[in-house]
Automatic annotation (TrEMBL):
It comes from Sediminihabitans luteus. GO terms for molecular function: ATP binding; ATP hydrolysis activity; copper ion binding; P-type divalent copper transporter activity. One of its GO terms (cellular component) is plasma membrane. One of its GO terms (biological process) is copper ion homeostasis. It comes from the Bacteria. This is Cation-transporting P-type ATPase B. Keywords: ATP-binding, Cell membrane, Membrane, Metal-binding, Nucleotide-binding, Translocase, Transmembrane, Transmembrane helix. Belongs to the cation transport ATPase (P-type) (TC 3.A.3) family. Type IB subfamily. It is found in: Cell membrane. The lineage of its organism: Bacteria, Bacillati, Actinomycetota, Actinomycetes, Micrococcales.
Length: 322
């Protein structure tokens, strides 16, 4: 391959919204036969929407949302952005703001000491922001957890059947559901919608027409994964759900061990290792910096159809050369 033609190929890519790290990337792009697609933020919009809040018996929806929102204001996950935004807008005060010491204030609550558990959920210490100042009253602080049902159980919180039923119903309808809890019990469920991008079905059709096998890979539940897959035309058998970030790497490695040449498209911090471990990593330009750094190609427009553009471009460029 002549370097000049490859450079022309990468230059053409830039015009088409496909940012290629170096000319040598085009060679692996051409040979790809399997394309692993992350769900949240890749096939679906990076912008989730909070649909409903279901409170456990004895808890109030407002309280569940307020506690979840202040914790999620410290996380970057699309789930977190939706919950934090809903919590801030349901409150009379301003958007989340810095509370110092790595903390944040949303409405009347402050969260500190944030921790995140990959593929499980997030937690922080929450306390009232203003009340009790100068009165000497200790209103206390509590550790609040927000995450997937199984992980909430593993944290030692009791889960009322109303909560597990609400999660099951939401997931079987294709929604994403996370549970919020504190003081030893699950307090409610946050139900989110994760709409597929307008262009995702077309992108999957284009990739398939190019002879690639698309596989959907997600940390989310089976219900929401199957719903997204069906909406874009990926067969149920090619859906892999509830996968921890480190296991995303293993899925890619397993496909490669079977002799496949694997591309991976992702957007999240949780996709970075799999993007780096694939023959070809493609990051959504709308995604996190970590994903972009781990990838060979950036799809600048955040449009999955650009993945097909990249494959076509590499095949054309290398045909011209050979
Ligand atoms: P993906 O991006 O493929 O959905 P993740 O590994 O990021 O996968 O998330 C997997 C699951 O972990 C989510 O569906 C959710 O249940 C839980 N989770 C991750 N991050 C958060 C968060 N910030 N708040 C609540 N739950 C979370
Ligand atoms: Mg994602």
């Amino acid at each position: 391959a002549t370097p000049t033609a490859l450079l022309v190929g990468t230059g053409r890519g830039a015009q088409l919204g496909v940012l290629i790290k170096g000319p040598e990337v085009l060679e692996s792009t051409r040979r790809v036969d399997t394309i692993v697609l992350d769900k949240t933020g890749t096939v679906t919009q990076r912008r989730m929407a909070l649909e409903t809040v279901v409170a456990a018996p004895g808890s109030a929806e407002d309280d569940v949302l307020a506690h979840a929102a202040v914790v999620e204001a410290l996380s970057e996950h699309p789930i977190a952005q939706a919950v934090a935004a809903a919590g801030a807008s349901s409150d009379t005060s301003d958007a989340p703001h810095d509370a110092g010491a790595d903390g944040v204030t949303v409405g009347s609550l402050q969260a500190f000491d944030f921790r995140s558990s990959a593929g499980g959920g997030v937690e922080a210490v929450v306390r009232r922001a203003h009340a009790g100042l100068g009165t000497g009253t200790d209103l206390g602080s509590r550790r609040v957890v927000v995450g997937q049902l199984a992980w909430i159980g593993e944290q030692g919180l009791t889960v009322p059947t109303e909560v597990s039923d609400a999660v099951r119903d939401a997931e079987s309808s294709g929604a994403t559901a996370v549970v919020a809890g504190w003081d030893g019990a699950a307090r409610g469920v946050l139900v989110l919608r994760d709409p597929v991008n307008d262009t995702s079905a077309e992108a999957v059709a284009e990739l398939t027409a190019l002879g690639l096998r698309p596989i959907l890979l997600t940390g989310d539940s089976e219900g929401s994964a199957l719903t997204a897959a069906r909406a874009v035309g990926i067969p149920d058998d090619d859906v892999i759900s509830r996968v921890l970030p480190q296991d995303k790497v293993d899925v890619v490695a397993r496909l490669r061990a079977e002799g496949k040449v694997v591309a991976m498209v992702g957007d999240g911090v949780n996709d970075a290792a799999a993007l780096a471990g694939a023959d070809l990593g493609l990051a959504m330009g709308t995604g996190t910096d970590v994903a972009i750094e781990a990838s060979d190609i950036t799809l600048v427009r955040g449009d999955l159809r650009s993945a097909a553009t990249a494959i076509r471009l590499s095949r054309r460029t290398l045909r011209v050369i050979k």
